[in-house]
Amino acid sequence: MIHSLSLSDVLAEHARSRPQVTAVVDGEVRLTYPELDARVSRLADALATAGVAPGERVLWLGQNSHAVLELLLACSRLGAIFCPANWRQSADELRFVVEDLAPRVVVREPSDATAALTADTTLWVEAGEGYERLVASGSPGDFPPAADTEPVLALYTAAFDGRPNAALLSSAALLAHSVSLLVVRQMEPGFTFLNNGPLFHVGTMMFCLATLQIGGTNVFTPAFDAEEVCRLIDAERVTQAFLFGPMIDAVTKANTGGKYDLSSLRFVSHSAEWDAMITVDDSPWCRSKMGGYGQTEVGGMLTFLGLAPGAAGFAGRPSPLAQVRILAPDGSEVPAGEVGEICARGKTLFSGYFARPDLNAVKSAYGWHHTGDLGRREPDGTITFIGPRLRMIKSGAENVYPAEVERALKAHPAVADAAVIGIPDATWHQAVKAVVALKEGVEATADDLIDHVKNALASYKKPREVAFVDVIPKRGFTPDYDALDAAHGGGNYPGT
Amino acid sequence: MIHSLSLSDVLAEHARSRPQVTAVVDGEVRLTYPELDARVSRLADALATAGVAPGERVLWLGQNSHAVLELLLACSRLGAIFCPANWRQSADELRFVVEDLAPRVVVREPSDATAALTADTTLWVEAGEGYERLVASGSPGDFPPAADTEPVLALYTAAFDGRPNAALLSSAALLAHSVSLLVVRQMEPGFTFLNNGPLFHVGTMMFCLATLQIGGTNVFTPAFDAEEVCRLIDAERVTQAFLFGPMIDAVTKANTGGKYDLSSLRFVSHSAEWDAMITVDDSPWCRSKMGGYGQTEVGGMLTFLGLAPGAAGFAGRPSPLAQVRILAPDGSEVPAGEVGEICARGKTLFSGYFARPDLNAVKSAYGWHHTGDLGRREPDGTITFIGPRLRMIKSGAENVYPAEVERALKAHPAVADAAVIGIPDATWHQAVKAVVALKEGVEATADDLIDHVKNALASYKKPREVAFVDVIPKRGFTPDYDALDAAHGGGNYPGT
């Protein structure tokens, strides 16, 4: 008990330590930490009345709102699990989530898809007024502290087999991750974060929680709108928002002429115009252009480029609260310079997927979380992320990971996209075959590309054959290997 | 297992992530992280051979040395407990420590006092060559990871009853505290800490461990020597050393004429001369002149002034990984503005004192660690440290804490020192009596001082009587209340 610190505990401390600090801004809503604490207690009481016992789930289907943070904190106060899910999914996908998670309470914004959802044992609450009535129905009171090692947040991710899995994160993991962001981003009291990215994604949620931990201010806006982002940065003196590449360009464009004062934003250098509008920040996080390697299952970021100035590996070095090993399929550590699966241990790690005991056993083999991604230690000890593991080609005694060969192919100036498959080979069991889409108006022969890979990687990894196509078929962000195998003669994979 | 991160794990990660980084400098000794990792494995094996099983103790009696860090890390690798103790204690005090801790191995520097120590079941090793032979006798090998919640460091402190108690700190607590220092001091890779304060004190140890956690360089020197500190800062490009007040003046004096280049030191502003020699750092830690409240039992710092810019309370706000409550003796929370005991929960807290079950029960009453110190929440939520609790005076229904009244008395311009006792009172059970030493050549009457306290505190806290003395008798840093009671008629304390 003395060593436990839950999200609810952090809020209870802030209510005492920061009575005058604004915790939350959302449209007309402005809450100090004591006000947020009181609402969260009322909400927790109302949820408990609705049957949300420890371990039960509460689901949010809607845009960004301060209600997301309140529901998370109320679930922490109860020892329950909160899941903010993507409400723009298809009706079929939403039905899957509701059936999978079996939530006791669902708070939803109205849409055709969310309106179609039903479940007998669930209390359905409309976001907005319905939610406010729920909060008002609760009584403030004391709750026995819940252990910080119990899951409190569920985020759907990792659709290995076409359906997503809910990664469970405990308060201990979320706060360990938050404090690693405090270190790398050098966040200080007064930090104001604009939640303009989706809160069902760990990328936004992790900064929302770090801002909570340091006692800063979370500003919520339903979704990204460049003009509204400018207005809120100016009005709330925002320190950081969830912005990258094209979003930064859109914000820069929306502020042409300097209509809004964006100087409070301490962020990454991007363009001369952008840099002149904001304050370019020199924390390790911003200096390294927010680089690193992460996934929901490690709480967000596992490695940070900001902890590895001048690194050879563009994923940088592990968080101060995590360990990384590059492991072979048999659980042994592969030597530096060789490719294996990125595996992890540490304070920020998730507690497995909700209701997936078999998958959890596989993912935690040999006492290490297996990320499903391939990586390599460079000579300076830093880590390079190669790509998703997905499948392995066996050529003679050698393992060939498609992602590694694809990376090498894509580094060729003529290649727009590439995928690598294994084709049956009488002598070597399998041979490497590349499927390549060239850039428009640029030429390259199969031999050019084979030579290019041979120069970049060990010779046994080079393709024996190259097929040229207009477009590589995809499943989400990764090549559709089943379609590629069918179209280009793939087969004989190890384990099949 | 997947969520555990011990000091030994941090070292094992650095050996992979930072193969070229210097971990340790100590005289002629320079070790990279892989070299340190290999020595720690050998040492752990040698200690295991000497009977150091999980939970057994290893004692260091000597000056600062890289051996202190190696022994701590080797004990972490074994699940054992390491204690660096003050070797300059009297023979009687050292005997008490050896009897209390019953260490399996003692590494000692030669002195009359340490040479007199004996114990049958203990392996006695001489620091220096004897220690090197011990390391060389071990074989490098794998050790099953020890849980990070087990105690790994014991530091003697808290001599409540005249004899000290060994506060036990787990890897989890030490690393949580370290990461809070990384946040407030904004430490980055490349940080180089000069261990010139005693490593048996948490103030030096906490920066040694934070430097380890961020993968920086720890430089060891046997003890504080101003000229040697200058030389090492220059030679090793030291970022921070264990320096305050008079030590900073001594270093400034030793570097008169700018013999050494101290510009790598990023530290607290102190004097015009000092500021010109170093780089004044603007991290929250240095900006706030390293203020806060701490004790060994919370891992070092519990609150930081750097987390409370413009704070009313000079102890600032809690660490991002801890909670603080100001509690009454019955375990209830006292309202803001009132004095109570500073109590804490969180990731940085100790695991109790070694072999003190009764004391541990008292210190963790109501599920909160009781620091033994008095504090108050100010209107802005920040915390003021009042002074050690020690004893309480009961006047009518009111609790009067001597430390609070003493603080008020010492704020009077004529008062050099003050102590407050309770004297028997027929009506009110006890009355407050002040014992005061005035500054030389300054006058003040009893009425002056009583009026002064009445203006500063609630009237029932003002002294009824004032006795003037030349010097307040002390026991360590605090007034010797037994002597004061005997000399000035104290008695009738509640609970006696």
TrEMBL record, chains A, B:
Organism field: Nonomuraea guangzhouensis
InterPro entries xref list: AMP-bd_C (IPR025110), AMP-dep_synth/lig_dom (IPR000873), ATP-dep_AMP-bd_enzyme (IPR050237)
Protein name: AMP-binding protein
Residues annotated as domain AMP-dependent synthetase/ligase: 12-354
AMP-binding enzyme C-terminal domain location: 404-474
Record-annotated membrane-spanning stretches: none
Highest taxon listed in the record's lineage: Bacteria
